[in-house]
C-alpha cells in the first residue's frame, strides 16, 4: 500500500511538472535577453516585407514605362490602370485570409516557406509576361502573375508578424515587430533606386536617345528587369527561412508538444537556464489553462475577442485608405508643384519612369524610413495606442491645414511650393510613426495562439480592402474627360484635390475615435496575458454560473489545489 501511495505521488508530481512546463517555456521566452537570433529573425522575416514593398511600389514607374511602350505615350485608360493596381491588392487580401488560416492549422514555418516560393516564382513570372506586341495580352499576363504575387505577399504579412511576436521577449516585442515592418521602407527605397539605375543604364546604353516620340525596343526589357529583380532578396533568405524552427508558442500551445518546443528554443536561443527544472528552487508557477474549447467566430470567441478583431480590422482599413491614396496623390501633387513639363509634353520613356522613382526615393528617405524607425524606438516606451492616435491626429491636421485653404491659397502662391511639399511629406512620416506600423503590430499580440495568424490575416485583408477603395476610388474620382472623349487623365483639378484632402482628413479623425474607444494597449505584457485578460473579465462576470464553467477552469483549480 505504501509502495502504491509512493507511486501515485510520483505520478502526481510528474503530471504537475508536465503541466507547469509550458509556463516555464513561455516565461523563458518573455524573459530572454536580446540575442543574435532575434536580429537574425528580424532580417529573415523582414526580407519578406522588403520584397512585398519592392513589388507593390515599383508598379508606378513600371506602368509609366508600359504606357510609353504599348500605349505610345498616351495615358493608360482608367479601367486598365485601376485594375493593375487593384489586382495585386486583391491577391494580397486573399493571401492574408488563406495563408493566415493555414498558419494556424498547419504551422507557421511550413506556410512561411510556401509564401516565399510563391513570391519568387511570381516575381520572375511578372518579368516574363507573355507577348511583346499586343498590349492586351501583356496586361492580362502581368495581371495574372501580380495576383499570384499578391497571394505570396499577403501570406507573408500575418506569418511575419506572428512569428516575430512569438519569438520576441515582452519588453522589446513591439520594437522587434516594428523593425520587421520597417523593412518595407527599405524595400520602397531600393525599388526606387533600382528603377533609376536601370533607366540610367539603358538610356546611356543607347536605348533612350533624345527622341521622345521613339520608344526603343530595349525599354520592353527594362521594365521586366525591374520586376524580376524583386525576387532576389526573397531568394537570398530562402535557405535561412527554411532553417527557422517552429515557434515555441505554436508547438507548445497549439500542437501541445512541450518537449519539442523546449528543444527548438534551446537550439537557437540561450534559454536553458530559464527552463531547467533541476536548477530551479522556486515554487512552480501555476500552469496555463488548457486550450479553450470555443471555435473561431463562435459566440464565445466574438464575446471575448470580437471587439479586438473589429478595432484591428477597421483601423487597418482606415489607414490603408489614407496611405495608398496619399501615394497616388503624391505624383499628382508633384506634377502640379514641380517645374517639370506637364504630361502633355512628350518625354523620354526612361526619364518618365526615372522621375516617378526619384520622387518615391525622396519620400522614402526623408519621411517613410524615419517614421518607421521612430516607431521602433518609441513603441515600447510610449505604447501602441498612443502612437496610433498621435499618427491619425497629425495626419488629420496636415490634410485639413492643406485642404481647407487649398482653393484660394496653395494653388495660387508660387512661393509656397516647397513648403507645401514638406507639409505633405509629414503625412508619410506620421503614417509610419503611427497607424501604418501599429496596425501591423497589434493584431499579432491580442489573440490566442491558435487564432493569432488567422485574425492578423483578417485584419490585414480589411486593410487591403481599404487600399483598393482608396486607390480605385481615387483614380475614378479624378478621371477627367476632354470634350467628351475619354482621355482618362488622372491629374485632378484644384477643387477635386481639396475634396480629396478633406475626405482623407475625415478618415483620420474616424481612426482616432475607433482607436480611442475600441483598441486595447498591449505594451509590456506577455502574449498570454493579453490573450487571457478578457477571459478573466468574462469569468469574473459569470462566477455565479457554475454550470458554464468548463474543463479548463476545473483543471486549473484542481492542479493549483494539488
Automatic annotation (TrEMBL):
<keyword id="KW-1133">Transmembrane helix</keyword>
<dbReference type="Pfam" id="PF00083">
    <property type="entry name" value="Sugar_tr"/>
</dbReference>
<keyword id="KW-0472">Membrane</keyword>
<keyword id="KW-0592">Phosphate transport</keyword>
<feature type="compositionally biased region" description="Polar residues">
    <location>
        <begin position="549"/>
        <end position="562"/>
    </location>
</feature>
<feature type="transmembrane region" description="Helical">
    <location>
        <begin position="221"/>
        <end position="240"/>
    </location>
</feature>
<feature type="transmembrane region" description="Helical">
    <location>
        <begin position="497"/>
        <end position="518"/>
    </location>
</feature>
<keyword id="KW-0813">Transport</keyword>
<dbReference type="GO" id="GO:0015293">
    <property type="term" value="F:symporter activity"/>
</dbReference>
<feature type="transmembrane region" description="Helical">
    <location>
        <begin position="309"/>
        <end position="334"/>
    </location>
</feature>
<dbReference type="InterPro" id="IPR005828">
    <property type="entry name" value="MFS_sugar_transport-like"/>
</dbReference>
<feature type="transmembrane region" description="Helical">
    <location>
        <begin position="421"/>
        <end position="442"/>
    </location>
</feature>
<feature type="transmembrane region" description="Helical">
    <location>
        <begin position="41"/>
        <end position="63"/>
    </location>
</feature>
<feature type="transmembrane region" description="Helical">
    <location>
        <begin position="111"/>
        <end position="130"/>
    </location>
</feature>
<protein>
    <recommendedName>
        <fullName>Major facilitator superfamily (MFS) profile domain-containing protein</fullName>
    </recommendedName>
</protein>
<feature type="region of interest" description="Disordered">
    <location>
        <begin position="527"/>
        <end position="562"/>
    </location>
</feature>
<feature type="compositionally biased region" description="Basic and acidic residues">
    <location>
        <begin position="527"/>
        <end position="539"/>
    </location>
</feature>
<keyword id="KW-0769">Symport</keyword>
<comment type="similarity">
    <text>Belongs to the major facilitator superfamily. Phosphate:H(+) symporter (TC 2.A.1.9) family.</text>
</comment>
<feature type="domain" description="Major facilitator superfamily (MFS) profile">
    <location>
        <begin position="41"/>
        <end position="523"/>
    </location>
</feature>
<feature type="transmembrane region" description="Helical">
    <location>
        <begin position="354"/>
        <end position="379"/>
    </location>
</feature>
<feature type="transmembrane region" description="Helical">
    <location>
        <begin position="142"/>
        <end position="163"/>
    </location>
</feature>
<keyword id="KW-0812">Transmembrane</keyword>
<dbReference type="GO" id="GO:0016020">
    <property type="term" value="C:membrane"/>
</dbReference>
<feature type="transmembrane region" description="Helical">
    <location>
        <begin position="391"/>
        <end position="409"/>
    </location>
</feature>
<dbReference type="InterPro" id="IPR020846">
    <property type="entry name" value="MFS_dom"/>
</dbReference>
<feature type="transmembrane region" description="Helical">
    <location>
        <begin position="83"/>
        <end position="102"/>
    </location>
</feature>
<dbReference type="GO" id="GO:0006817">
    <property type="term" value="P:phosphate ion transport"/>
</dbReference>
<dbReference type="InterPro" id="IPR005829">
    <property type="entry name" value="Sugar_transporter_CS"/>
</dbReference>
<dbReference type="InterPro" id="IPR036259">
    <property type="entry name" value="MFS_trans_sf"/>
</dbReference>
<feature type="transmembrane region" description="Helical">
    <location>
        <begin position="454"/>
        <end position="477"/>
    </location>
</feature>
<feature type="transmembrane region" description="Helical">
    <location>
        <begin position="175"/>
        <end position="201"/>
    </location>
</feature>
